[in-house]
Amino acid sequence: MAARCSLSSSSLSVHGPLRHNKPSKRLAPCLPSAPRPGAAALRARAAKLPPGVEAPRVQPKLSEPFLGFTQTAEIWNSRACMIGLIGTFIVELVLNKGILQMIGVEVGKGLDLPL
């Protein structure tokens, strides 16, 4: 007798007896060649939850992040940007100089190109 293989869920019928398609040459050793006359029916029923147990909520289906751009990361990035911008304004106000003047770049002379 040929070796037996496990049946996949696609070969099981919920409401009727087992049905067999014509097996290919490759799968022939794993599947019986003809259906048995006394094939048993298979019925599947879901178990009921005991009282006091809640069914889990459906998990949200999130889209795949594009190159790491997720909504949470973008929210935190915008918050950090706002804190940095307000901090820059406070430093400029306290020191009475612009950021470029503080790092040594001369401003206010334009491009200083002779015409």
Describe the protein.
This protein is 25% helix and 0% strand. It has helices at 71-95, 99-102. It is elongated. The mean pLDDT is 76.
| Tally of DSSP β-strands | 0
Number of helices: 2
Which stretches are poorly predicted, pLDDT < 50 over at least 5 residues?
none
Mean pLDDT: 76
Structural class by SSE content: mainly alpha
Strand/helix succession: HH
Query: How far apart, in Å, are the first and last alpha carbons?
Result: 100 Å
The biggest sheet amounts to: none
Give the C-alpha Rg: 36 Å
Key traits:
115 residues, mainly alpha, 2 helices, 0% strand, elongated, High-light-induced protein chloroplastic
Write the layout of secondary structure elements.
Blueprint: H1 71-95, H2 99-102
Biased composition (Low complexity): 1-13
Protein name: High-light-induced protein chloroplastic
Organism: Zea mays
Task: Write a compact overview of the structure shown.
This is High-light-induced protein chloroplastic. This protein has 115 residues and is an all-alpha fold.
